[in-house]
Amino acid sequence: MAVLVAGVGSADGTAVAGGVRAVPSVAGWGPCPERDGQPVPEEVECATLRVPLDYREPMGHQIKIALNRVKAKVSRDANHLGTLLINPGGPGASGRDLTRFVAASLPADVRARYDIVGFDPRGVGASEPSLRCVDPATYYRPPRPDAVPRGQADERVLLGRAEAYAGRCGNLWSWLLPHLTTANSARDMDRIRAALGEEQISYLGYSYGTYLGAVYATLFPLRVKRLVMDSSVDPGAVWYQSNLRQNVSFERRHRQFLAWVARHHSAYKLGRTAEQTSFAFYAMRERLGARPAGGVVGPSELDDTFSFASYTDKVWPQFAQAWSSYVRDGDVDGLVDVYTKHGSNDAKDENGYAVYLGVQCSDAPWPRRWDKWRADMTRMHREAPFMTWPNAWYNAPCAFWPVRGGTPVEVKASPKLPPFLILQSRHDAATPYRGALAMAKRFPRARMVLEQGGNHGVSLAGNQCVDRHLAAYLRDGSLPPRDATCAASPAPRPAARMASAQRMETPELLGVLGVLGSLIGR
């Protein structure tokens, strides 16, 4: 695997030696190492880029960023549109997992004109160092304590887990954590641009990747060619406030799922109204607290698993059938299957979680007094019980994080920044619609396409209307009219009982957006 050497000492990524600015030297790309024991197709090339740990000391300690690329099929002439850099969100998700998917999903004429480049942000995956704080087999061993505390004793157990995780990360990574921020990842992106020899780059970011893109556009507006933000974060609500808003949006999406199950009572027999299916869901959760399904799926595992159904309605038939089989027939296999596929965690997930916390806890201030958290969550749990406490404990290490949150980058438009494209689902749970509105307000020259559905990540996910707008913009910069909308994809229909392996198909896009194995993915 080749090493790209980006210059140090200047804002645009060019090297400074003896006061003379030079073009960064770039080594050739090479074959990729195996991924999960499987060979990587030859069309994908890999490289590693050295970047400063601390951009205030550009000649100091260097870390490595792992990249991969699917090259354009046209030569570098007028038909070549340069580099399309991609990020799947998180923070903590591997961009290298997204590269082949984007290359395979874009229209052939668009894909042929871009070098599509993915990267593992600092601390993630194959980048070095790769952040890991605990043994995932021990930390995630099911069944875990119920995320909804029933009293002070339960709360002390959960609080102890959060404090211990933060302490372990601090003990292992005190030298790295102060530099694990969105702003530094944006600076890394500009080093990637410089190392690739590009004057400008195009960018496609999903979820948290929209915030990363907004920070990059703020810091390096002259370096942006085309910019696509899919499922936007509100840049003015990072990060504690953003999580409070998520509790409400996840509740709304979960109730849409419960209403869908009720409409298909003839298939699942879990209730004819949303009130009845809600009762059935929480009765199941209570029952799992006393007797975890298969000895592994307790209340917290159920929360983790069914949160995935808020990201995409394509899995609703699978989840409803597993739930129905458990309630109606006492069959635990379906619940265990959906947990194994959508709720369990491994070493890759723990790496993503550690980076998620490292970035979010450092990007912005968090309450350091637990009384504030308890008061907010107690109030919110009454209106949004599905996600409030699980989301709180997912983020609770930030109350103890060894690096206090700093001042976020003030995301704002520059007259030097070209118009760009925002893609959003109206009922998105992980990145609520109001975030896209806030992003558009900060960048008034941007244009939004609003899909009327509720799935997270709307481009390259099967909606042809959305994908036409994406392709037109990437092809020649064409923007949609203001207030452009796309109809939602058709609602799923109940499926007949299927074998377990057939039920476990995952929507392809979400498989590479850092959602699997995570309670909350952005």
UniProtKB/TrEMBL annotation:
Listed name of the protein: Alpha/beta hydrolase
Please tell me whether the keyword Hydrolase is annotated for this protein.
Answer: yes
Specify the taxonomic lineage: Bacteria, Bacillati, Actinomycetota, Actinomycetes, Streptosporangiales
Q: GO molecular function terms here?
A: hydrolase activity
* Stated family: Belongs to the peptidase S33 family.
Key words, A-Z: Hydrolase, Signal
- Keyword check for Signal, yes or no: yes
| Pfam assignment, any one | Abhydrolase_1
Q: Where is the AB hydrolase-1 domain?
A: 83-458
Supply the InterPro entries for this chain. Answer: AB_hydrolase_1, AB_hydrolase_fold, Serine_prot/Carboxylest_S33
